[in-house]
Amino acid sequence: MAAWLMKSEPEVFSIDDLAKAKTTFWDGVRNYQARNLMRDDMKPGDLVLFYHSNAKPPGVAGVAEVIKAARPDPSQFDATSEKFDPGATPAEPRWFGVDIKFRSKFATPVSLDTIKATPALANMVLVKRSRLSVQPVTDAEFKAIEKLGGSAKRASTLK
């Protein structure tokens, strides 16, 4: 099992939106490196740190889980979508996404400043100023952030 960090702007799709939906298809990624990570490396059962970007403050808001392997992002074929890619075809898709489900919301979001100030997280891809919306996370980094997030509201307790 691997671990990942996935970024979303909370006004577009937040951890609360995921909690309400329970599952979602993570679409709209238009960076080849992030696409390759989802397409080639993400597997069902992998855990995801759900990161709120462009938030005040930005930080990890909770945990999700990959539940389905990558598949072509249908928005690339939809000419009415802002994510349309005229060079993509069903026979040769360019963009992929994965299905994720809500696992938990942190009692306290782990801010980027806290992450940067935590020695155990000094080598995180996120700290190295990566702009990737999908990033690998080591098991140790995942556990450290989960601990910093405190007790979490779990999917099984949501109504």
Overview of this protein structure:
The protein has 159 residues and is α+β, with helices and mostly antiparallel strands. It is 21% helix and 33% strand. It contains four helices and seven strands, in the order βαβαβββαβαβ. Strands 1, 2, 3, 4, 5, 6 and 7 form a seven-stranded mixed beta sheet that branches. A hairpin with a 6-residue loop joins strand 3 and strand 4. The longest helix has 11 residues. It is globular. The two termini are 28 Å apart.
Question: What's the quick description here?
Answer:
With 159 residues, the protein is α+β, with helices and mostly antiparallel strands. The protein has helices spanning 15-21, 32-41, 112-117, 139-149, and strands at 3-8, 23-26, 47-52, 59-72, 96-111, 134-137, 152-154.
- Number of DSSP strands? 7
Helix content: 10-25%
How would the global form be characterised?
globular
Sheet having the most strands: 7 strands, mixed
Strand content: 25-35%
Reading the helices and strands in chain order gives EHEHEEEHEHE
For the terminal residues, how far apart are their CA atoms? 28 Å
Provide mean pLDDT, rounded: 92
Number of H- or I-type helical stretches: 4
C-alpha Rg (nearest Å)? 15 Å
Q: Decide which structural class fits the backbone.
A: alpha+beta
Low-pLDDT runs: 155-159
Record keyword descriptors for this entry:
single chain; alpha+beta; 4 helices; 33% strand
